Automatic annotation (TrEMBL):
Organism whose genome encodes this protein: Streptomyces albus
Sequence ranges of Polar residues compositional bias: 390-403, 453-476
Ranges where the Terminal beta-(1->2)-arabinofuranosyltransferase C-terminal domain occurs: 688-801
Region (Disordered): 333-491
Transmembrane domains' residue ranges: 29-46, 104-123, 135-157, 201-230, 291-309, 537-559, 565-584, 591-609
Protein name: Terminal beta-(1->2)-arabinofuranosyltransferase C-terminal domain-containing protein
Keywords: Membrane, Transmembrane, Transmembrane helix
Biased segments, Low complexity type: 333-389, 404-441, 479-491
Length: 816
């Protein structure tokens, strides 16, 4: 299907009303709507500002970077504890600025600003998308109203985590993709500009894995959409691929050589490659059910179905009229396959477009033009300034050479009035002496004058040749040196190219510079003036489908891995993506009703609907983390590091006491807070104090940067991250480390610890010397020499896949 098969889109003229509002007022309304949505995110995010323990994990790594120790959690070993690589380095860059003393407060401010920026970019991207076909008119907030009243949206606008950066990336990626689509439309115009440099766009889209590893799915989908929108040649494709992969691949090489594994340790600790469908479905429902999100999502789905059905009906009607033709009333323009009936005079300036057929005795008044594929009939006088469109047939009395075929969609007869052209099915047999192009008209034995032009793309009957000196021009037959017969175009006369819908090219039409546009092109388009041409509907489908596909993949991934323990956090990006194309809708009756219903739900949701504090009835715990931290810390807005370190806990008291006394000792938190014994460290441990604690961020804030924090959940501990999961009660807490491993790793042989089985300690000590375990620890603890970097790099794949039985006795049996 060529560009001539587009449906007409009414274009408002300057000064007229479009969708109910004058142009200037509509623009002001749209700016207000976008700004108001951003203001809601800003205000509610600020009112819900807070941080959690995981944010302290980021800030300890940031403080290590600023102290010159590198991107590590402990100076004693190279372990990547930050899930969001780009977020970690962004905080480090901000922390280096003068006057920034607390990276946690910086994380709150930066996260809020990035969240607002993400929403503004997303809204503006949707606005620009709608402007591709509707240059004017008011827009209504729609899909964005689903996200604005959610407590989860307000909570994770800050929190100190990478969620704000995730929203900024998603909104920015959408904006860039829409920009690529608009540039594509400008490039395809007959006088279009050259191919723009989109390598920076590919570079930005490729940053997803560095924002969060799971956003690699989004990067892949958006990069594929960018390619489908432009379909560049191989050289450009390779350039885009190189730009997109440059930074992620470079950092992946650094990660493998520096840390010895291919992913951050939290990805190993949470077993992101695992499958836990039931837990994931429960987590999804924990996000959807409290807010009654099924209501707005159902309303939006109904609206989309209604609009899709309307487009489908219009498309079918257009296709049917393009093939059969429908009678058009006098004094109207015959559009998209309609025909002017016999005897009905066409009024001045009326145009017959796309396959219109003027039947016998129809007289054309001055300035009347027969559009593309029009056939002028016998005895029809053409007045001055009358031009027949491309693919017009020669009338009676115009002799042609024997057995010359007519152009696509034309009808040539001899001595009889021409009727509507007969469509031939593709590959249908033609009568003797006739030829049929796919979808064109069958012509039989029409003679042409010697020296006349044979139309481009038509096939002559057997034995027919072009006369010397003839040329293919505009698919019409012209007799040199004679006045143009009705239905012909004289040399040098501009034939109407395009249509009433604004520039679509018809079957067999020519573009400037005489380049023909073929009817049958591949589904993604053809070429024009050496430039690729895509069908607008295909390009729009790619543009709209990209965030929807990415959102579905993100939701699928979250459900597959079992969700998270923080309410709503992992579902928000998927919802954001799914709703991007309908963040705004053009003002109309159906859109107004929909927006009103969504606004009513949003008010109820924002005022009354809240998530449960905990989900005790589910097999896996999901918390309203914001409320939990407010209550535990006794602070409405815990945004500084002191809000966490001043919390009086038995662990922090024991750690501070050990530091004050100067003991080279380990503070060990026993399971279920059964006690905090303090035991001597082994001489080889290069740290003034060590602490084994499940609250990793809190422990990292309490201990100095040269202290050794041992994570008992594996988020920053290479040994714990590689153990096999033993608990499914809480996402991200599935690998509780047996304390025997800790004692065996950092204490001297023979050290006895209350509450820890000495036999299990002995088994753990033995297992640490067997199989791949020594190499695993060496990859993180040996000095980083060129040889160590190369060994880490080449062994990263096997090291990432390696797992240890959580039970020391079983590990000893299996490894030794």
């Amino acid at each position: 299907m060529s560009r001539s098969d587009e449906l007409p889109v009414p274009q408002p003229t300057p000064g007229t009303r479009a969708f109910g509002l004058p142009g200037t007022l509509a623009q002001r309304w749209n700016a207000f709507a976008v700004a108001a949505c951003g203001a809601v995110v800003l205000v509610m995010g600020y009112r819900h500002r807070w941080t959690n323990d995981d944010a302290l994990i980021y800030t300890r790594a940031v403080r290590q970077i600023l102290a010159g120790n590198g991107p590590v959690f402990n100076v004693q070993e190279r372990a990547e504890s930050s899930t969001g690589t780009l977020w970690q380095w962004l905080l480090a860059a901000g922390g280096a600025l003068p006057g920034v003393s607390d990276p946690l407060r910086l994380a709150v401010a930066l996260g809020l600003l990035l969240t607002v920026a993400g929403y503004l970019l997303a809204l503006d991207g949707t606005r620009r998308m709608l402007r591709i076909h509707r240059p004017a008119g008011a827009l209504l907030p729609a899909g964005v109203l689903v996200l604005l009243p959610l407590c989860a949206t307000w909570d994770y606008a800050t929190s100190g985590l990478e969620t704000g950066l995730s929203f900024a990336y998603l909104g920015g990626a959408w904006w860039l993709l829409v920009r690529a689509r608009t540039l594509r439309a400008a490039h395809e115009a007959p006088a279009g500009r050259g191919r723009p440099a989109l390598a920076p766009t590919a570079f930005a889209l490729g940053l997803g894995p560095l924002v969060r590893p799971d956003l690699a799915l989004v990067s892949g989908v958006f990069l594929a959409a960018l390619w489908l929108l432009w379909r560049p040649p191989l050289r450009t494709t390779l350039g885009w691929a190189g730009a997109a992969a440059a930074l992620p691949c470079a950092y992946e090489i650094f990660r493998a050589g520096y840390y010895g594994v291919l992913v951050p340790l939290p990805a190993l600790a949470k077993e992101a490659s695992g499958t836990q469908w039931q837990f994931g479905w429960d987590y999804l429902r924990n996000t959807l059910d409290p807010y009654l999100l099924w209501i707005p999502l159902t309303l939006l789905a109904g609206y989309i179905g209604y609009r899709a059905y309307g487009v489908y009906r219009a498309y079918r009607a257009h296709r049917a009229s393009a093939v059969a033709g429908a009678p058009a009333a006098p004094e109207t323009s015959a559009a998209l396959g309609t025909s002017a009936t016999g005897g009905a005079p066409a009024t001045p300036d009326a145009s017959a477009a796309f396959g219109t057929s003027a039947t016998a005795d129809a007289s054309a008044t001055p300035d009347t033009s027969a559009g593309l594929g029009t056939s002028a009939t016998a005895g029809t006088p053409a007045t001055p300034d009358t031009s027949a469109g491309i693919d017009t047939s020669a009338t009676a009395g115009t002799p042609d050479t024997p057995e010359t075929s007519a152009a696509l969609g034309t009808s040539a007869t001899t001595g009889t009035p021409a009727t509507s052209t007969t469509s031939a099915e593709p590959d249908a047999p033609a009568p003797p002496g006739a030829s049929a192009e796919p979808g064109g008209a069958v012509t039989t034995g029409t003679p042409a004058e010697p020296g006349s032009a044979v139309t481009t793309g038509t096939s002559a009957a057997p034995g027919t040749t072009e006369a010397p000196g003839t040329s293919a021009t505009f698919d019409t037959a012209v007799t040199p040196g004679s006045p143009a017969a009705p239905g012909t175009v004289t040399p040098g006369t501009a034939a109407p190219v395009g249509s009433a819908i604004g520039g679509g090219s018809a079957v067999g039409a020519s573009l400037p510079h005489g380049v023909p546009v073929r009817r049958w092109v591949r589904w993604w388009g053809g070429t024009r003036d050496g430039r690729a041409v895509s069908r607008p509907y295909t390009a729009d489908a790619v543009l709209v489908g990209a965030p929807v596909a990415a959102g579905l993949l993100s939701a699928f991934f979250v459900v597959k891995i079992g969700g998270d323990f923080m309410h709503g956090r992992m579902v928000l990006p998927a919802l954001f993506l799914l709703l991007l194309p309908i963040f705004l809708l053009p003002l109309g009756r159906a859109a107004t009703v929909l927006a009103g219903a969504l606004a009513a739900w949003a008010v109820v949701c924002g005022l009354l609907l809240r998530p449960p504090l905990e989900s005790p009835d589910d097999p896996r715990i999901v918390f309203d983390s914001h409320t939990v931290y407010q209550r535990v810390l006794g602070d409405t807005h815990p945004v500084g590091q002191s809000a966490h370190t001043e919390r009086r806990l038995a662990f922090s008291d024991a750690a501070r006491h050990t530091l004050r006394t100067g003991r080279h000792a380990l503070v060990l938190r026993l399971p279920h807070d059964a006690g905090y014994p303090v035991v001597p460290l082994a001489p080889h441990v290069r740290a003034p104090v060590a602490a084994a604690e499940a609250r990793l961020g809190h422990a990292g804030a309490v201990l100095p940067l040269d202290g050794f924090v041992i994570d008992t959940l594996g988020l920053s501990n290479p040994l714990g991250a590689h153990t096999e999961p033993t608990s499914r009660r809480k996402a991200g807490h599935e690998k509780p480390l047996d304390r025997a491993w800790v004692v065996a790793d950092v204490t001297a042989p023979g050290t006895r610890v209350p509450g820890v089985d000495p036999d299990r300690v002995r088994a753990a000590r033995h297992a640490l010397t067997c199989g791949p375990l020594p190499e695993l620890l060496a990859s993180a603890r040996e000095p980083l020499t060129p040889g160590r970097f190369w060994s880490n790099l080449t062994g990263a794949w096997d090291r990432t896949r390696f797992r240890i039985p959580a039970d020391p006795v079983e590990a000893e049996r299996r490894l030794c």
